Description:
By secondary structure, the first copy, chain A, is of the alpha+beta class. Helix content of chain A is 33%, strand content 33%.
Amino acid sequence: MIRHTVMFRFKESASPEEISAFSNGLTEMAPKIDAIVNYEHGSDLGVNEGNFDYVVTADFADLDGYTTYRDHPEHKDVIARTSHVIADRAAVQFEWQG
Amino acid sequence: MIRHTVMFRFKESASPEEISAFSNGLTEMAPKIDAIVNYEHGSDLGVNEGNFDYVVTADFADLDGYTTYRDHPEHKDVIARTSHVIADRAAVQFEWQG
């Protein structure tokens, strides 16, 4: 399987409402994209210093599944509506034996 | 469950042998730490520009499981042996319904 992982830091100016809209946007998007096998996301728990603020881990049967998600209009719509709260982003896609 | 996610960028000076030693160190460590429920890791597939080079996703039953792993001597040993190849690191721990 392919696992897509992406972390975000929010801008200091991002309000709790904007961060909720970001998180809710992901929750509402996931069931609309058939290529997604598993979709987990959430805020950093605050256990360690220096962490990013938010992470998504998403599993796909193969690389085509991931690129279908990446380029899907529902995904692009969430990005367009919420990317103004993002200060930094880090991502990796890797293969694993799911 | 608690999912720990951590990404790495390797130094440009890191050799393929050093990166293999890093990856193999994680593979050999995981079965020695009972608190780990799932442990997946791998190199970025190179599909997107600007990605980090490597990622670990690790699941634990609860936060105590994660901190047991974080502070475990086998984990600290891998860090001590391989951290010289790391240029940058990004991490998030989050809660999900496993």
